[in-house]
């Protein structure tokens, strides 16, 4: 069934509360049966104080038989995928999601949406979220088993985080059990000449002096229209936090993305088994047409296939037929194929028994 958000008449503005007591869970204003926890992050290294992140949980927490999931969204996105949470709940996982700083529930009106100048800054909220999840879900006397999941930009962010965590904080890293990537953003679009050499140097140069200047580009609404129920899709979500045409892209943010991608291209090791899901094809359109309902119209899937093996020693890479950019928001048949691939991987790599067919 499609997920629907609970957009109540008393829904708060985009400005998050300035001060929320630590570890106080509150009802979520967007999804029934969910709670949110504000994670204060101190001063913003990018100068847009105050900053915080938001941890979302599906239920009242507590130990789960299999462990827990920590899900991280992509660019122009936030957590609303209740069906994904239900999938893991059915397999005895406690489900948590993280709205990163300046994203979704964590956005403040004085901030630049999704802006960050170094992807390593996200370590603060990722570490904090992992600590909360471990404290709530690990059985007494046992280490936590947290499966990290990341979509698109979130897939790049979580991959780089786990690599740093493995090298610098092995005790925290030991709490993680695997990495599920949903169309991770591992390279820029376009011909090779446009992604290297003078163009790459120009991007870094502009970012150094005008980090929040906007990258000139035409914004396509094709992906948003293929998803949202108000257009041609079946999914309901908040269009302030996930607008159909996306948020504007800044040079500083894009430079941070590119530096992260180049680090991954040199080879990293997240230290846990990886499943990387993608569509079997890309189709880019300036405007919506039915072709984008059965393809990735955001990223080049060949890039995902090429760079996924650079993430870890154990990577299962799967192309899902007719999937969208977010494979878990695909049409029903592709969505079922994606969930079947996750089930297979869980059994093969994490020793999770299968449950009844959905």
Automatic annotation (TrEMBL):
Q: Where is this region: Disordered?
A: 1-21
Q: Which domain of life is it from?
A: Bacteria
InterPro entries for this protein: AB_hydrolase_fold, Hydrolase_4, MAG_DAG_Lipase
Give the Low complexity compositional bias ranges.
1-13
Please list the residue ranges annotated as the Serine aminopeptidase S33 domain. 64-279
Q: What PANTHER family has UniProt attached to this entry? A: PHOSPHOLIPASE-RELATED (PTHR11614)
Protein name (Swiss-Prot/TrEMBL): Serine aminopeptidase S33 domain-containing protein
Q: Which organism does this sequence originate in?
A: Gordonia hirsuta DSM 44140 = NBRC 16056
């Amino acid at each position: 069934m499609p997920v629907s958000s609970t957009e109540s008449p008393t829904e708060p503005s985009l400005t998050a509360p300035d001060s929320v007591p630590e570890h106080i869970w509150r009802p979520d204003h967007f999804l029934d049966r969910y709670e949110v926890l504000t994670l204060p992050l101190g001063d913003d290294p990018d100068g847009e104080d105050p900053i915080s992140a938001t941890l979302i949980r599906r239920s009242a927490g507590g130990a789960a038989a299999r462990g827990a999931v920590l899900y991280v969204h992509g660019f122009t996105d936030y957590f609303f995928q209740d069906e994904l949470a239900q999938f893991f709940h059915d397999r005895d996982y406690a489900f948590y999601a993280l709205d990163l700083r300046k994203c979704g529930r964590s956005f403040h009106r004085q901030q630049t949406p999704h802006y960050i100048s170094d992807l390593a800054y996200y370590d603060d909220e990722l570490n904090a979220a992992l600590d909360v999840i471990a404290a709530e879900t690990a059985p007494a006397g046992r280490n936590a088993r947290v499966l990290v999941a990341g979509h698109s930009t979130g897939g790049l962010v979580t991959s780089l985080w786990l690599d740093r965590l493995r090298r610098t904080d092995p005790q925290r890293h030991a709490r993680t059990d695997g990495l599920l990537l949903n169309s991770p953003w591992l390279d820029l679009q376009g011909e090779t000449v446009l992604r290297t050499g003078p163009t790459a140097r120009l991007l870094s140069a502009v970012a150094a002096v005008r980090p929040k200047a906007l990258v000139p580009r035409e914004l396509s609404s094709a992906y948003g229209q293929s998803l949202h129920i108000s257009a041609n899709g079946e999914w309901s979500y908040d269009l302030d936090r996930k607008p159909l045409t996306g948020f504007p892209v800044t040079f500083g943010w894009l430079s941070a993305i590119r530096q992260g991608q180049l680090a991954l291209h040199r080879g990293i090791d997240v230290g846990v088994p990886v499943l990387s899901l993608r569509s079997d094809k890309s189709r880019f359109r300036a405007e919506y047409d039915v072709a984008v309902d059965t393809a990735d119209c955001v990223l080049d899937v060949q890039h995902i296939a090429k760079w996924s093996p650079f993430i870890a020693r154990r990577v299962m890479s799967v192309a899902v037929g007719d999937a969208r950019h977010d494979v878990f928001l695909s049409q029903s048949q592709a969505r079922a194929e994606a969930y079947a691939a996750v089930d297979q991987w869980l059994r093969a790599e994490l020793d999770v028994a299968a449950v009844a067919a959905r």
